[in-house]
């Protein structure tokens, strides 16, 4: 029963961003982004917890803690009947999952670092905070990387296409990504989505989270300035940019455009009902999982006492 609750909570949590995406657009983008990131990262944690619970009886038996293993078997219920093969499989998966998370994080970080432009390529303009790079290509390019030194990368083709106010808005958008540490958030989202790729809604939630991050950068770049809002909207509608890899902040990922246009046009508003609808499902899931775990922990001492009493006869 406990395993089923946690497993269901994991798949529902991974699905929440895509299920609530319409209402989420009415939240402030920073708040909606954090909710999406927490949902995806939390789903990975719950999957690992569910695997550890199924693997626990086997692991405890190997360590000689047979009484605790018997308690875990009791808690698993019907799963214990197939635990002789399911337990080892879950134990292996519980070991593989953290390794997969680390591997994906490093892979995505490496892919981002490959987009960092060496000093010999393009035109480099330096400031105290970051480096602006203009690449000698006609393709429309705009993205940013955080390491090894923060860079905003655009192309000569983009500079030629945009009037000064729109170019300034695009650069402000990329600077906002760096200022709010969006590269790290995007790597976290991409890592979680890759690890949860066996669950299709998680991949959709990944796209929702990336769109939310782009809206957040728009919001910071505009900063209440209506002229910059109009310039950013015009740039977004008028550009066909080269797509950056997943995990890299770029100005115009296709899946983010509709929500960003709606937000920049000033549609949607946040109300108490919207916030309640956003937070209530996650709160219910968290409360259910916490109550389940607490009830199981509370059941361990009496179960152990019962086992000892039985063994004394």
Write the layout of secondary structure elements.
Blueprint: H1 2-19, H2 21-24, H3 29-62, H4 66-76, H5 83-113, E1 123-126, E2 131-135, E3 142-145, E4 151-155, H6 156-161, H7 164-179, H8 182-195, H9 200-222, H10 226-238, H11 257-264, H12 272-311
Parallel strand pairs: 2-4
Antiparallel strand pairs: 1-2, 3-4
Q: Could you explain how this protein is built, in words?
A:
70% of the residues lie in helices and 6% in strands. It is built from 12 helices and 4 strands, in the order αααααββββααααααα. It has helices at 2-19, 21-24, 29-62, 66-76, 83-113, 156-161, 164-179, 182-195, 200-222, 226-238, 257-264, 272-311, and strands at residues 123-126, 131-135, 142-145, 151-155. It has a 4-stranded mixed β-sheet. The longest helix is centred in the C-terminal third of the chain and has 40 residues, at 272-311.
Key descriptive features of the protein:
single chain; 313 residues; mainly alpha; four-stranded mixed β-sheet; 12 helices; 6% strand; globular; disordered C terminus
What helical percentage do the residues reach?
55-70%
Q: Tell me about the largest β-sheet.
A: 4 strands, mixed
What's the total count of β strands? 4
Q: What's the N-to-C terminus distance? A: 30 Å
The average pLDDT value, as a whole number, equals: 80
| Class of secondary structure makeup | mainly alpha
Could you say which overall geometry the principal axes of the C-alpha atoms support?
Answer: globular
Radius of gyration: 24 Å
Strand arrangement in the largest pleated sheet: 1-2-4-3
